[in-house]
């Protein structure tokens, strides 16, 4: 399920988000600065592997902290911690020694060991306790070694293997502890150690004297033989086909001539025991050192399982090359006493360091620089580093008689033997570069400590460090580890253990923060030159960051020191300054002699450092509340991070491309104070291990039955707690000591003018002191305000980071992988790709999703959410607010309501949940909540909640104002409110859509199986069609009761989109008519809206308005309405107008009706023209003409002049002149003649009967239209013309008068027309050679009367009969005058006489 709380209904990029992003950029900036350190090869100025260099002979190689310019001589690098004597039991054992005694250290478990003959004793060198021993051997123990076992071979309780070598046997013993590993920070040395009595393996030495033993991280055991060979003790779980469980392998066996170059000047025939083995576990490389100083290189393979001897260098060759490189006495390089492999975390290019008896360090590489990923193939010396005492003006004291050394992570410890009055004593030298980070060359300090006895073994105690366990599982960095100053807050003091016959001597290596602590304790406060000198040495920002480590400590014993560190932070942290970008810096003074930093303490500048060549003003107003007097108004420190100007410029340009400078409103750069930069630096260093790393990763889980992958956190709850503790300390420090406020209110206009003027005056040298002071005060205020604002952003980031970490800790406590599995696939994909920085700055959605999964887990277990909600509010108030807690409670109520059977109780609980949801409706994720209510059929709550949410998210009803004003695009605020309201209403319309789909579905659709098989189980949540219809009516009724006009608008839009216009018209609401009118106005091209509007008016019996809308639709010029529809619109408009005139007596309505009727008449003619043109054979060629006729109503003149006349549409022209009332008999006759001719032309070649029928239908159809108006239906002309065509075509003599009678022409009129035609003696009949044609037609006409006298009204019948008898008499006279021999004449004479008799009988 998604989060209950939706995004805040504001603009996407809020001010708070912008502050987080800005602060995150500052963290990035300081992380980049902390990454700007050089590799060891670069510090040693080694250009390439083939160009060795030298150092240690200049004063700046070993600067003295006791220099008068620094005054830090009382701060040593090494201090004595404690001396732990040997356990008393061991002292007694010395008396029983017979053959041999050896001592050594196992730093992995904080143990020292002592062998006396065949017995070995192991005890805790920290306190001399937990003495364990093993006496199961019969031979003298020659060497001992502690190694990690190979995984999967021994039982889990065996954490280490103790390898003991005698002249006869090699024995492996199991080592276990009473306190098992509980976490990454667990120290096995804290538990009681047990040596298993029975050896795990025991094999013969084959007469090989094993001098030393060294294990690899992979569990391999290597042994140095006195015979000069390298051996390996190989062991495995079971015997193989050709190998035993445990055996000894000689990796040096065989001829060496083909491996070792001939230029090596030593003889292999002489015995040269291998005395030391050093393994580089990061590169899988092994080195050996022989007693005579020969160094051999072995390649263990990329996987650490191989073995290949690669190269070697003899002592003479090494000394010769070193002397050539350093140009000093060759005796300084003889007798190598120690070698140490350098891991990849210390240097990418230098792989080995060797220490000589005089303290000289020789650095080697196994690959050309830049090819560190390749397998080693050479052993090349690249640098010679002299110890202190070789510079011209340096102290005369230098190391000598070094018999034992230790080197690790840049720290060198030398044990130098001194013989005073027969007493052998040691002086321990400590050399380290930790006090000079970020340099351009290697600069180290040295400290000496006297030891009262001879040292048998020296090593560094292995203490689990925070930075070592905070490993988010990422690939190793391409660079070496940063200087100690970057990680000192995560590390404890390094401890050196020196073992002698009197016990263990523990020496601590001080970090810079420890040095500051010692100075504060010694000085009893910060008001001393030593503290000031510490800030001078480390620079303001770095020293402030170091102060914060002490000031943020919560330990009770550190409270006084924390107070002193806080005071030092403010005393020497500097102030923000302005860089005018013109002349040199205007500062009060600098600490220490000028130029000290330019020659000695040079390094990369840190963020916020003042650029060179800038004019600055330093405000005296402190950003923080200074806890005590003595704050200097202006302060600057010398730059111990010097770079040549050209390099500085390049570096500054590179940083500015990534991180923009701090520019004020006048475009001038502000350089933040050391206090500001120290806070940013300390914050960046706390977050450094996780800031850019992924927060989750996939873990493979293997079970007996399955294997699968889960998403797990890269940090454990314990690790998260560490980060949280550090950040809370910093947050409390800032809250306690800062006076955060918004930047000072400054009149921008006046300040801009005045500051510009003053600046110009100052630059030209014309400003007086008063103007300069005024400008300085203004810049002080602006710079201080900007720094305060920046610190406020940093504080916001710290608080947000604390909340994210606090939430993460809770998630880890609740089985993170199960919670992650509850996310959607997209959310898990997003989570996998997200870094911790992204989680803090922009991970609000994913954190909300994780919180939802956490709360849902409680709800899924039917557990109350009160406790977890309370904790979430306490830990992450911005991620889980009071509103979130309210949502969780409401969700809990909804879940509990599902289990209730009593309807009353269920309704009560649901109403309570609805009330809670309505309280937080402003930020509620309505979709999630609505889905909950749908599942329990609480539909009324959805409507109520959505309305409440819309009103809370738009309290000023800006959406309605935006809507009523036509949705202007420039009203962005109204648009946002409109979108928010529509989004809120969307869930109501989706609910209606769900009901609609359910009610429209087939009643048995839910029973149709999705897949083959048995019938599906009925869904209890499925609604029936009847229920869906009922709920639809209920929801609609609830919506229509609302006075929220925007809700009505959303409903109307939905009904239209779902094509439910009939349902829309059933609604009786005051908002419907404005909605339809607005839609018709805005969407003028939307015909559906206009259709709805006139239908609405008809439904409400507003016929006048309906008629106007219909008339507008008919007149609309568009292709969406065809001509037939326009006629229909006009017809409906006329009907509505008539209905309106019946309800009102307005003359205007009558005129409107008349206008509509005329439009209809013209429109019919236009339709007639359109149909006529459409029937033409060339209709495709006149598509534009047809489209015009079909897309608008045209006037009658246009129809005649542009369509009817050009296309010779006689019928249409006849209709037009009728409509126009135009009287032109000749034109009418011509049009009728043309109509008849065209019809006859269409039937050419057809049978006579077909031609008669076709033309007859045309005359009858048109005659019924025009017969009422004789002007446009000239019967005499038509009868004569048709008779002529009938005569020509051989038509039936009855045809013409018959169709005229069908048209409705009275028989009496036809008799009159024919009689007149006969008496006119038109020669056309003679020309047609049918002079008696009319005589025959008249006979048939009168005969039809005698056969059906009823065709003449009874009141006219007698008179008409008399007229017929009179005309018959004249016709008989005509016939008698003709030739009596013509059979036609005789026939007509006989017929007329018979007809005369019939007529007489009618009288």
From TrEMBL:
Record keywords: Disulfide bond, Glycoprotein, Membrane, mRNA transport, Nuclear pore complex, Nucleus, Phosphoprotein, Protein transport, Translocation, Transport
Localization: Nucleus membrane; Nucleus, Nuclear pore complex
Domain of life assignment: Eukaryota
InterPro entries: Nucleoporin_Nup133/Nup155_C (IPR007187), Nucleoporin_Nup133/Nup155_N (IPR014908), Nucleoporin_Nup155 (IPR004870), Nucleoporin_Nup155_C_1 (IPR042533), Nucleoporin_Nup155_C_2 (IPR042537), Nucleoporin_Nup155_C_3 (IPR042538)
Nucleoporin Nup133/Nup155-like N-terminal domain span: 78-503
Gene3D superfamilies: 1.20.58.1780, Nucleoporin, helical C-terminal domain, Nucleoporin, helical domain, central subdomain, Nucleoporin, helical domain, N-terminal subdomain
Annotated ranges, domain Nucleoporin Nup133/Nup155-like C-terminal: 673-1376
One Pfam family here: Nucleoporin_C
Membrane topology recorded in Swiss-Prot or TrEMBL: Peripheral membrane protein
Single Gene Ontology MF annotation: structural constituent of nuclear pore
Stretches with biased composition (Low complexity): 638-659
A biological process from GO: protein import into nucleus
GO cellular component labels: nuclear membrane; nuclear pore inner ring
Function according to Swiss-Prot or TrEMBL: Essential component of nuclear pore complex. Could be essessential for embryogenesis. Nucleoporins may be involved both in binding and translocating proteins during nucleocytoplasmic transport.
Protein family membership: Belongs to the non-repetitive/WGA-negative nucleoporin family.
Protein name, per record: Nuclear pore complex protein Nup155
């Amino acid at each position: 399920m998604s989060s209950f709380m939706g995004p805040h209904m504001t603009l996407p990029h809020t001010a708070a988000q912008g502050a987080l992003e800005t602060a995150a950029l500052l963290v990035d900036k300081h992380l980049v600065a902390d990454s700007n350190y050089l590799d060891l090869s670069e510090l040693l100025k080694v250009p390439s592997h083939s160009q060795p260099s030298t150092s240690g002979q200049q004063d700046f190689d070993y600067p003295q902290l006791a220099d008068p310019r620094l005054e830090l001589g009382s701060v040593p690098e090494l201090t004595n911690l404690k001396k732990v004597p040997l356990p008393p039991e061991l002292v007694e054992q010395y008396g029983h020694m017979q053959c041999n005694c050896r001592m050594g250290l196992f730093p992995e478990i904080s143990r020292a060991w002592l062998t006396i003959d065949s017995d070995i004793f192991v005890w805790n060198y920290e306190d001399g306790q937990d003495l364990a021993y093993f006496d199961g051997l019969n031979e003298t123990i020659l060497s001992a070694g502690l190694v990690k076992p190979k995984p999967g071979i021994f039982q889990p309780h065996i954490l280490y293997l103790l390898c003991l070598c005698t002249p006869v046997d090699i024995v492996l013993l199991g080592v276990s502890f009473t306190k098992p590993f509980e976490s990454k920070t667990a120290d096995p040395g804290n538990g009681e150690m047990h040596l298993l009595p029975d050896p795990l393996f025991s094999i013969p030495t084959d007469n090989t004297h094993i001098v030393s033993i060294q294990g690899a991280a992979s569990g391999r055991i290597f042994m140095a033989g006195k015979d000069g060979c390298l051996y390996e003790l190989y062991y495995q779980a079971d015997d193989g086909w050709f190998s035993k469980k445990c055996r000894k392998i000689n990796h040096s066996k065989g001829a060496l001539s083909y491996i070792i170059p001939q230029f090596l000047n030593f003889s292999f025939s002489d015995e040269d025991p291998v005395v030391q083995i050093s393994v580089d576990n990061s590169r899988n490389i092994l080195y050996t050192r022989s007693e005579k100083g020969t160094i051999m290189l072995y390649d263990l393979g990329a996987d650490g399982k191989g073995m290949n001897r690669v190269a070697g260098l003899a002592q003479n060759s090494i000394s010769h090359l070193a002397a050539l490189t350093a140009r000093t006495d060759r005796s300084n390089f003889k007798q190598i006493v120690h070698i140490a492999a350098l891991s990849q975390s210390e240097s990418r290019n230098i792989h080995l360091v060797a220490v000589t008896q005089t303290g000289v360090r020789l650095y080697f590489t196994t690959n050309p620089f830049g090819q560190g990923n390749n397998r080693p193939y050479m052993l090349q010396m690249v640098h010679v580093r002299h110890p202190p005492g070789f510079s011209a003006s340096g102290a005369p004291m230098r190391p000598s008689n070094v018999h034992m050394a230790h080197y690790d992570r840049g720290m060198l410890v030398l044990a130098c033997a001194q013989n005073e009055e027969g007493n052998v004593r040691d002086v321990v030298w400590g050399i380290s570069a930790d006090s000079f980070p970020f340099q351009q060359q290697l600069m180290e300090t040295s400290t000496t400590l006297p030891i009262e006895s001879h040292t048998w073994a020296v090593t560094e105690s292995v203490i689990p460090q925070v930075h070592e366990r905070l490993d988010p599982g990422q690939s190793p960095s391409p660079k070496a580890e940063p200087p100690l100053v970057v990680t000192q807050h995560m590390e404890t003091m390094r401890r050196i253990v020196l073992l002698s016959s009197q016990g263990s001597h523990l020496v601590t290596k001080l970090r810079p923060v420890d040095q500051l602590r010692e100075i504060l304790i010694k000085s009893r406060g910060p008001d001393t030159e030593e503290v000031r000198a510490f800030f001078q040495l480390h620079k303001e920002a770095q020293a402030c960051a170091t102060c914060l480590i002490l000031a943020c400590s919560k330990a009770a014993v550190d409270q006084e020191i924390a107070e002193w560190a806080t005071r030092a932070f403010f005393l020497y942290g500097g102030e923000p300054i302005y860089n005018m970008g013109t002349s040199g810096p205007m500062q009060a003074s600098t600490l220490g002699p000028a130029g000290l930093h330019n020659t000695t303490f040079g390094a990369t500048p840190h963020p916020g450092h003042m650029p060179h060549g800038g004019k600055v003003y330093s405000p005296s107003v402190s950003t923080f509340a200074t806890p005590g007097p003595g704050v200097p108004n202006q302060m600057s420190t010398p730059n111990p991070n010097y770079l040549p100007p050209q390099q500085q410029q390049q570096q500054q340009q590179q940083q500015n491309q990534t991180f923009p400078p701090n520019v004020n409103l006048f475009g001038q750069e502000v350089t933040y104070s050391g206090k500001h930069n120290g806070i940013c630096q300390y914050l960046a260093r706390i977050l450094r291990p996780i800031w850019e790393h992924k927060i989750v990763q996939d873990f493979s889980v293997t079970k007996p039955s399955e294997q699968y992958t889960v998403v797990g956190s890269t940090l454990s709850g314990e690790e998260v707690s560490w980060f949280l503790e550090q950040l809370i300390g910093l947050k409390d420090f800032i809250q306690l000591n800062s006076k955060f406020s918004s930047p000072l209110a400054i009149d921008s206009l006046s300040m801009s003018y005045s500051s510009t003027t003053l600046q110009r005056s100052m630059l030209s040298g014309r400003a007086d002191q008063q103007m300069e002071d005024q400008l300085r005060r203004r810049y002080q205020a602006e710079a201080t305000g900007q720094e305060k604002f920046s610190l406020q952003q940093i504080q916001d980031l710290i608080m947000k980071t604390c909340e994210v970490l606090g939430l993460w800790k809770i998630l880890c406590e609740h089985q993170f992988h199960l919670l992650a599995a509850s996310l959607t696939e997209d959310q898990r994909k997003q989570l996998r790709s997200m870094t911790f920085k992204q989680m803090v700055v922009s991970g609000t959605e994913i954190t909300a999703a994780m919180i939802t999964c956490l709360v849902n887990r409680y709800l899924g277990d039917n557990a109350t959410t009160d406790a977890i909600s309370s904790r979430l509010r306490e830990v992450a108030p911005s991620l889980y607010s009071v509103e979130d807690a309210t949502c969780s409670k409401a969700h809990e109520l909804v879940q509990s309501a599902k289990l209730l059977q009593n309807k009353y109780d269920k309704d009560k609980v649901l109403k309570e949940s609805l009330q809670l949801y309505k309280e937080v409706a402003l930020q509620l994720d309505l979709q999630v909540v609505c889905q909950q209510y749908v599942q329990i059929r609480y539909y009324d709550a959805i409507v109520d909640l959505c309305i409440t949410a819309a009103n809370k998210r738009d309290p000023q009803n800006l959406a309605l104002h935006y809507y009523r004003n036509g949705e202007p695009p420039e009203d962005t605020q109204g648009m946002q409110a409109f979108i928010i309201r529509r989004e809120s209403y969307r869930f109501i319309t989706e609910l209606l859509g769900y009901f609609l789909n359910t009610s429209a579905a087939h009643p048995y659709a839910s029973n149709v199986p999705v897949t083959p098989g048995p019938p599906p189980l009925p869904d209890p949540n499925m609604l029936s069609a009847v229920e869906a219809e009922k709920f639809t009516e209920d929801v609609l009724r609830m919506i229509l009761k609302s006075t929220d006009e925007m809700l009505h608008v959303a409903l109307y839009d939905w009904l239209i989109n779902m094509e439910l216009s009939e349902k829309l018209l059933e609604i009786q609401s005051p908002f419907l008519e404005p909605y339809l009118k607005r839609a018709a106005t805005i969407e003028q091209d939307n015909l559906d809206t206009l259709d709805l509007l006139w239908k609405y008016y008809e439904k409400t019996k507003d016929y006048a308005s309906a008629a106007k809308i219909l008339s507008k639709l008919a007149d609309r010029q568009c292709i969406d309405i065809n001509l037939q529809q326009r006629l229909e619109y006009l017809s409906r408009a006329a009907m509505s107008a008539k209905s309106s005139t019946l309800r009102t007596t307005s003359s205007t309505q009558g005129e409107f009706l008349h206008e509509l009727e005329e439009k209809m008449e013209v429109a019919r003619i236009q339709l007639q023209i359109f149909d006529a043109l459409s029937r033409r054979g060339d209709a495709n060629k006149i598509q534009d003409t047809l489209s015009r006729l079909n897309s608008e109503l045209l006037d009658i003149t246009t129809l005649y002049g542009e369509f009817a006349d050009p296309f010779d549409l006689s019928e249409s022209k006849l209709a037009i002149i009728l409509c126009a009332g135009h009287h032109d008999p000749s034109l009418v006759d011509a049009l009728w003649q043309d109509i008849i001719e065209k019809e006859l032309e269409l039937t050419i070649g057809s049978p006579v009967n077909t031609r008669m029928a076709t033309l007859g239908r045309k005359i009858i159809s048109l005659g019924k239209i025009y017969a009422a108006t004789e002007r446009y239906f000239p019967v005499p002309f038509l009868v004569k013309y048709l008779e002529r065509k009938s005569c020509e075509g051989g038509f039936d003599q009855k045809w013409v008068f018959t169709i005229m009678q069908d048209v409705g022409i009275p028989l009496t009129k036809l008799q009159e027309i024919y009689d007149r035609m006969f008496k006119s003696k038109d020669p056309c009949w003679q020309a047609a050679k049918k002079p008696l044609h009319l005589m025959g037609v008249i006979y048939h006409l009168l005969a039809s009367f005698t056969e059906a006298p009823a065709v003449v009204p009874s009141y006219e019948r007698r008179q008409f009969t008399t007229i017929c008898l009179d005309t018959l008499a004249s016709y008989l006279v005509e016939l008698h005058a003709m030739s009596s021999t013509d059979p036609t004449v005789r026939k007509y004479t006989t017929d007329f006489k018979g007809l005369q008799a019939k007529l007489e009988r009618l009288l």
